[in-house]
Amino acid sequence: MSADHAMSKPSQTGQQTGQHTGSQTEQQHGLSEKGLKAGSVGLIGAVVIGISCIAPAYTLTAALGPTVAEVGVQLPAIFLVGFVPMLLVAFGYRELNNAMPDAGTSFTWASRAFGPWIGWMGGWGLIAATIIVLSNLAAVAVDFFYLMLAQIFGNPELADLTTNLPLNIATTLVFIALACWISYRGMETTKTVQYVLVGFQLLVLAWFSVSAFSHVANGTAFDATAISPDWFNPFAVGSFSAFAAGVSLSIFIYWGWDVTLTMNEETKNPEKTPGRAATITVLVIVIIYMTVALATLSYAGVGDTGLGAGNPENQGSIFAVLAGPVMGPFAILMSLAILSSSAASLQSTFVSPARTLLSMGHYRALPQKFGRISPTYKSPSYATIASAVAAAAFYVITRTTSENALWDTITALGMMICFYYGITALACVWFFRAEAFSGARAFFFKFLAPLLGGVILLVMFVKTAYDSMDPAYGSGSSIGGVGLVFILGMGVILLGVVLMLVMAKLRPEFFRGQVLTRGH
Amino acid sequence: MRYVVGYSANARGHDAVNLAVSLALGRGASLDLVLVVPEVQQSGHALAPKAGFENLLTEQAQEWLDQALALVPSSVPAQAHIRSHDSDAHALIEAAEELGADMLIIGATSTGLFKRFTIGSVASALLHASPVPVALAPHGYHRQEALTRISCGLGTRAGAEKLLEFALGMAANRDVPLRVVSLLALDGDAADSADAAREYAAKCLADALAAGGPAVPGEAKAEVPGEAKTEAQVEAKTEIVVAHGRSIEEAVDRLDWEDGEVLLIGSSRLAKGRSIFLGSTAGRILRALPVPMIVVPSDYELKHLNHSASSDTPREAQQ
């Protein structure tokens, strides 16, 4: 039972009616009871939510290039292998979410399992990852915004505006500010809009693949490459470094999928829907990823010149380069699909760091003002704005120091996701250690799967971090002879450590374990 | 009687509570403070599960409602409710219907920099859909005493009797004077128009008194009127005022308004069935008005009185 809850509970609420008075179960859990609603999401709805959280069009354009740069033609293999640790960790995530539903997720769970210090860093990892993805989403949206303008007005020069540094930064900041404002106002994408966006993305990606394959068949492809079984063999990847880097990138492409597993209460059939939705979502996603990956490789090859998927120029955003040659005049649909999906994701992703920061403020792991909720819009107010400022700052720093900001942020992001997912998975193992051997189901979902997933991810994290010290890593940007990706990734984590120490000085209650208690 | 108060923990919410207290004091009504929180959806990001945020939101909402209840004096019974809905207006209307409320009270806005009333989105949505009268508190309303006078804005169109009956009932029940107000925007022939308006208002008033006088059900359901106050007494406390200016706003400005006064106004012709729609003139009155305004749905009385003439609906206060 947290001291905080006892204090902030209303002392005299008159005759509180309404369904929200779940304070009894609090005694056992240390976490407030959730206000459950009758299920309203059906199978298709859950799948749509899952796919829209992944935002495949955006994810592919951002991650395909960097992954090819690491693993070459073994791209399909890595995309398949990358799903395994994601799946293992997601099982643990689901168990934790069922046992302790909380807005702080990784932060709260790691605090309950390992105590305040690791918990704080787990929360920091989550926040850092979402802040980084916010800045990347905004940047990709801006790229395609200018590309679409160029396509609309038939003036290719407009697309080059995005390479104008001050203009690019200014536009990106505007996008971030707009998304922040929408999120602050508590507005959410409606179901209909979500269905349309998801359908449109899938349609355009399918169109892209079909066009690419027909170019290959007609002999008009840039660098027609025959598909070989070797592409599906993960062991054909040159080195463990490349493998680790590839896997940490492909964690990113499935990031968001775990939402389908955690949607228990709101589905119409909580017994079956989440599992089925998760399966269908991942099938749809894998099919789309495989098709697009094969289409891209067959059409463009992995060469490092021209349209080749291995060309460093193309890494940041592969569809910006390929959509035109492949889809001809219809490339504007690709721009529209990516712009709309990354803009929608940008806005919805704001919710995530904001709620984690809110939760950390609430549990006194951050200054009180992070726990503020806007009286007018009933959204996390201070936390949302803080997230926007952080994302903007991160973007400005990367953009001005990196030769290819998009590429380097995605690589750093993959690393950060491995970091906090790893911590979360191990938190699951440790938190449930007493029940781990109570049955086959518990053994697998609460122990084996998260243990394997967590260890794999942390190994990937350490390996990628170590390799990224090489100045040639990623896009090849470096500061003082150390790779920029390492500086970004480690810098963010170190910043977290510093802030944690400052917080421990300012508000020691949380760090003494007085707010969130360990164990059951 | 129950009044539903749309509360939010900002200046707007305070305005609403104050007005609700003022209205309740004269009638012994009880208040239901309703705080609407958005339905948290899982449609956002995978890393932002709804469950935990809902808890924090509910906890915060209860804290806010505690503060709100503390604003209500002990002489007025009050309850607090948390409603979860994506639309504040919908949730308030649902609450009003469920609780059998006789009025909805909200703060109109907190951002009227130059004009006292700039209708917020919730208020505007309510004014389009509420089946019960909606009271709008102006920005910075801080009075917590019973009303001292009731004004009723009258248009020149036919059908104002229903509104007047409601106003008469309200004034009688609260034992305060009624002022029938005709607002005219004129350029030239002021005197003639004013006379015509005054005549019309007098005729309407006479009709309304004849039709039911103080025994108007809308406000008087729980009362046993008639015996206590004779028509003459009510009539004696009623005056008719014609105000004119180059614009409606100027006409409103020229009238004197008591601190403890409210203006009653009928909803527009555009209103469908039992719901409110604020006409453009009423909207302009609202912007210039220094006192609270209560907008009454077009056939609010009809549901009690069983009149057959459907064309006989009150219309917006001014042409």
Number of helices of chain B: 11
Largest interface: A-B, 63 and 42 residues
Widest sheet, order of strands of chain A? 1-2
Question: What are the secondary-structure elements of chain B, in order, as H or E?
Answer: EHEHEHEHEEHEHHHEHEHEH
Cα distance spanning the termini of chain B? 33 Å
Which value, in Å, is the CA radius of gyration of chain A? 23 Å
Overall form of chain B: elongated
The oligomeric state of the chains shown is heterodimer
**Which percent band covers the strand fraction of chain A?**
under 5%
Strands side by side in the biggest sheet of chain B: 3-2-1-4-5-10-9-6-7-8
Main pleated-sheet profile of chain B: 10 strands, mixed
**Which shape of chain A, going by the Cα principal axes?**
globular
Count helical runs of chain A: 20
| Class by SSE composition of chain A | mainly alpha
The averaged pLDDT of chain A comes out at 85
Round the Cα radius of gyration of chain B to an integer and report it: 20 Å
Number of strands of chain A: 2
Point out poorly predicted stretches of chain A. 1-38
**Through-space gap between termini of chain A:** 10 Å
What is the number of beta strands of chain B? 10
Can you put this structure into words, describing what you see?
The complex is a heterodimer of chains A (520) and B (319). Chain A has helices at 3-8, 26-29, 43-54, 56-71, 75-99, 106-114, 116-153, 156-160, 165-184, 191-218, 240-254, 259-262, 273-300, 318-327, 331-362, 381-401, 405-431, 440-467, 484-506, 508-511, and strands at residues 478-479, 482-483. Chain A is mostly helical. Chain A has a two-stranded antiparallel ribbon. In chain A, strand 1 (478-479) and strand 2 form a beta hairpin. In chain A, helix 3 (43-54) packs across helix 10 (191-218) and helix 11 (240-254) crosses helix 17. The longest helix of chain A has 38 residues, at 116-153. Chain A is globular. By secondary structure, chain B is an alpha/beta fold. Helices cover 39% and strands 19% of the residues of chain B. Chain B has 11 helices and 10 strands. Chain B has helices at 11-25, 50-71, 88-98, 121-129, 161-174, 190-211, 217-220, 231-236, 248-254, 280-288, 302-305, and strands at residues 2-7, 30-37, 78-84, 103-107, 134-137, 149-154, 178-185, 238-245, 261-266, 293-296. Chain B has a 10-stranded mixed beta sheet, with helices on both faces. In chain B, helix 5 (161-174) packs across helix 6 (190-211). The longest helix of chain B has 22 residues, at 50-71. Chain B is elongated. At the A-B interface, helix 3 and helix 15 of A face helix 2 and strand 3 of B.
